[in-house]
Every structure is written in structure tokens, then in C-alpha cells.
Amino acid sequence: MKRCTVCVLPETFPKITFDEKGVCSYCNSFKEKNKFIPSLEKLKARLSEIIDESKSKNLKYDVVVAYSGGKDSTFLIYTLKEKFKLNILAFTFDNGFMSTYSFKNMNNVLKNLDVDHVIVKPKQQLMKKIFIESSTPGIYPQHLINSGSGICISCIRMVANMCLRIAIEKEIPMVMLGNSPGQLLQSESEIIYKDNKIPYELRKNLFKPLAERVGEEVYYYLMLSKEEYKKNPFPYTINAFPLIGYNEEKIYSTIKTIGWKRPDDVDPNSTNCKLNSLGIVKHKELYNFHPYDYEMSMLVRLGIISREAALRRVEDPEERALKFAREIEKNLMY
Ligand SMILES: [Zn+2]
């Protein structure tokens, strides 16, 4: 398969074209837009302000952190605790398919860092229906599908939503998510924002295809109620990695010191979730490109990982994802 000579986007990626040097249109337009990327310094200052304001109130918790037990969110919690000295409530959404080892990691890490932990495990029949339907065509618009599998989109959305709900209930001013910089579109409004800006009906429309197949109940898990969106002050959602720095080597070497080990029961793209493998396999079957092509390519463009490292993530000759996916598919029957 032909891939861009700079990043790893394949010729099967939607709307891609290549110049005479084999460089893809996404790389070329990234180069052009680069000068418009918002000043990170300004956003860092904004984050400091929000943190200082929270600290001045001596709250029980300054922040709810979405904690998957994966390497990125582990490093995020470590940094917020040790560097920023925040009072943290770690929140884990147990989708029923977390690696057993990721729970060991969470226990070790949070014990070492002395952080409170809430785990929510929604009813499994409903979760299975959501995940099965999310992996079929027509659930999410193509621009979302371009950067992730339908299964991951639903799961990540539920995580963010539950974090917000807890922050609203407990009056916690911040929710922090551990998306890698490759998962973000590099716009200011994605790094620090308030999630009540999007009109309610517009958001409801986004989840309508899923609700039509699974039932109205999905809205509770995927979005807040009208009343919850009206909460004032409304918590900030912060994607902290572009602000605190993202370096995979540093992440691995740091989290090793607080008891984190790499699980061996997940595919190479995930350090915590088995369902991810099914997401990958279904996505490749439907769209003929890897759901991590976009994120890995962005990480290459940002100079965070090498092209070779990205290739290893999207081209797994051992097809480990396939092996895990078959196992998971059996468990997903409902
Ligand atoms: Zn490219």
C-alpha cells in the first residue's frame, strides 16, 4: 500500500492526494496552517490561572482526571500530582473490556501517588450493544471516523461525559483528559474549553443514529441533560498534553518508577483496552485504513515519534489486533 513519504497516511485515506514527491495533501496543508497554531504560551498561562484560582479555594478536589490505566493518563496524573500539586479525583470508566493488567497498574500507581479513585461500570448488556452498533457504518460522520474507530469514539465520549457529570455533581472546576497531541486537531478550542458551548440539539443529533439502533437510553451515557449543561460555573475540559509536554520515552521511564508495567494482553496500539483491537479490525474492514493512521501521522508531523515508529503501530505483521478481536467478538454477543 502506498503511504505518504513524510507521515504514514495511506492512499486509501479519505480525500488524500499526493504531490510529485509522494507527500500527502494533509502534510502539505499542515505546513501551511502551522503558522496559525495558537500560541501555546498563552494557553499555558490560561491553565496556570485556572489552577491558581482552584487552589485558592482549597477544594477537596481541583480536578477529575479520566484514568484508563494506560500510559498517557498515568503520566498525566503523576504530573498533576507531583508537579502541579493538585487535589485529584481519578475517574475510571470500566467498559467491561479493560485489560486485567490495567487494573493492577491503576492500583499500583494510585496507591503510590495517594490519589482517590472512582470506578464506574455501566450495565454490560447496554455497553455491548453500544459497542457492536458503533462498529457498523453510518453511526458517526466521516470526519470523526477518519481519526478513530466508531467503538473508540463512543467509549471516549462516554468517559468525557461521565467525568463532566461527576465534576458538576461535586463542583470540581476541571476535567482533564489524556488525549495524545496526535488525537487533537491542534486548535485552541480543543485544549481548554467548556463543553456546554455546543448547542444541545446539535449534540443530540450526533448521537441520533446510535440511539435509533440501541435506544434512547444511550443519551444519558453520551451527553449531559439540559439542566446539567446549564450548571454555572461549568467545569473546564482540558486536554493537557500539548501544555505539559508529550514525550513517549519520558512517559515510559517516568511511570515505571510509580509501579506501571506494560500489559501483555492488548494489541500494540493500546496499553489498557482489549476492545481497541476489535475497533481496529472492524474499522479496517469498513474503510480500508487503520483508525490510528491519522493520530500516528499527526505525531510524526509534530516531531513526537519517528515515521518508522508510526509504521510499526499501523502495520502489525503479526496481526495481533486480529487475534484479540476474535476473542472479544465472542464476548460481545448479546
Ligand atoms: Zn503525509
UniProtKB/TrEMBL annotation:
Domain of life: Bacteria
Designated name of the protein: tRNA(Ile)-lysidine synthase TilS/MesJ
Annotated source species: Paramaledivibacter caminithermalis (strain DSM 15212 / CIP 107654 / DViRD3)
